[in-house]
Amino acid sequence: MGSPKANLTPLSSLRVSKHQIPVHHRIPNTSIQHKPLLHYHAAFARESSSASAIESHLAAVGVVDPQWRYTMYSTTHFHSTTHELLCIARGGARLCFGGEDNPGRVEASVSRGDVILVPAGVGHRLLEEEGHEGFEMVGSYPKGCSWDMCYGKEGEEAKVEGINRLAWFEKDPVYGEEGPALDV
């Protein structure tokens, strides 16, 4: 018996939201590399978007390493050492990107099968879970990258400067040779 298979929405039918989010206080958001927050709506078909199927699919594409299954922290945080790929495997939620007090923030409702590509520096947090089945994501990072936790506090300036040196994706982490990550 093999791994469960994930079915992707064809690129020609995929709806993608792109957001540039301005710097807010000490949260750089997309202001450093100018790569947008990407929301792939229903990239994985609902019936094939289990955590195991998503992990198996991402491993086969080979761009990112799935590292955890969890919800999202309810405190705004960002990563300075890596970009992050979040694939919704169960439930739904309202998420905030950019800092809850940022007039340029993005609040997104996500559900099973959605994918969010969070560039390094973009603040993110859980606002609320939706539904009764529990909210779970598969969190992944580009191969060879380790994530850190930053909170937009004094003393993180050197970490933030390092975002400039991070490579962007040469292949889309979900679709491979083509895909939204390559169209930015």
TrEMBL record:
<dbReference type="InterPro" id="IPR047121">
    <property type="entry name" value="YjiB-like"/>
</dbReference>
<dbReference type="InterPro" id="IPR011051">
    <property type="entry name" value="RmlC_Cupin_sf"/>
</dbReference>
<protein>
    <recommendedName>
        <fullName>Cupin type-1 domain-containing protein</fullName>
    </recommendedName>
</protein>
<dbReference type="InterPro" id="IPR014500">
    <property type="entry name" value="UCP019307_cupin"/>
</dbReference>
<feature type="domain" description="Cupin type-1">
    <location>
        <begin position="76"/>
        <end position="128"/>
    </location>
</feature>
<dbReference type="InterPro" id="IPR006045">
    <property type="entry name" value="Cupin_1"/>
</dbReference>
<dbReference type="InterPro" id="IPR014710">
    <property type="entry name" value="RmlC-like_jellyroll"/>
</dbReference>
<dbReference type="Pfam" id="PF00190">
    <property type="entry name" value="Cupin_1"/>
</dbReference>
